[in-house]
């Protein structure tokens, strides 16, 4: 089975046929599924789409149950939490729908944790961290693209000379390098490779 365009978040099952991981769709499994827009809706009250998944949360005055439903709570109603709350031993605590969010100074609203700047996110070699609201994901560095080879995903060098995405002069040769490219003026020409005279 070979998939010429690759299967970003999935597996190649046949000639250019990808089987996507849960939460992803598209011919090359590169599009996030917005589960919040599905019918029937996965959450009883409110839904937050995340990269490859989703989170449920409740309206004020309700608390989130393990099955994604919302149960009425008089005590929670009084606290006025942004994303619902839980009651433990008579104490009411506001909740955040994701580990990438934390309670703000008022103890009721949730603020984003930038995992990329705090160092909580660990991206492998030649990948960079991209922060999202409530989470993060690792993206290939510029000059690399995500490829599925040998049963795993890795960031492979983009050959700008083959894909024709270089900016070399008409009278220059393109030389591919790891993550980038170089331009060298052809014999009889002088210049930077981007300008040849």
From TrEMBL:
| Keywords associated with the record | Calcium, Cell adhesion, Developmental protein, Differentiation, Disulfide bond, EGF-like domain, Extracellular matrix, Repeat, Secreted, Signal
Acetylation listed as a keyword: no
> Where would you say this protein principally sits, based on its record?
secreted
Q: Domain named EGF-like: which ranges?
A: 32-71, 112-150, 157-195
Please name the Pfam families in this protein's record.
Answer: EGF_CA
The answer to whether the entry has keyword Chloroplast is no
Q: Which CDD domains match?
A: EGF_CA (cd00054)
The listed locations are: Secreted, Extracellular space, Extracellular matrix
* GO terms of biological process kind: cell adhesion; cell differentiation
Tell me where on the tree of life, at the top rank, the source sits: Eukaryota
Show the GO MF annotations.
calcium ion binding
Identify its protein family.
Answer: Belongs to the nephronectin family.
What is the protein name stated in its UniProt record? Answer: EGFL6 protein
Per the UniProt record, the source organism is Cardinalis cardinalis (Northern cardinal)
């Amino acid at each position: 089975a070979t998939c010429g365009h690759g299967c970003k978040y999935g597996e190649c099952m046949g000639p250019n046929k990808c089987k996507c991981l849960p939460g992803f769709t598209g011919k090359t499994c590169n599009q996030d599924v917005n589960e919040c827009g599905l019918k029937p809706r996965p959450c009883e009250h409110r839904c937050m789409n995340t990269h490859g998944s989703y989170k449920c949360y409740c309206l004020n005055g309700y608390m989130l149950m393990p099955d994604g439903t919302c149960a009425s709570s008089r005590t929670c109603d009084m606290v006025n939490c942004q994303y619902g709350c839980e009651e433990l031993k008579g104490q009411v605590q506001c909740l955040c729908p994701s580990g990438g969010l934390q309670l703000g100074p008022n103890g009721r609203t949730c603020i984003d944790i930038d995992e990329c700047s705090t160092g909580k996110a660990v991206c492998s070699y030649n990948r960079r961290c991209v922060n999202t609201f409530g989470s993060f994901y690792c993206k290939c560095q510029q000059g690399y693209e995500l490829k599925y080879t040998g049963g795993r995903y890795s960031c492979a060098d983009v050959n700008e000379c083959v894909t024709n995405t270089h900016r070399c002069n008409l009278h220059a040769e393109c030389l591919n390098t790891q993550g980038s490219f170089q331009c060298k003026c052809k014999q009889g020409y002088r210049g930077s490779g981007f300008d040849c005279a």
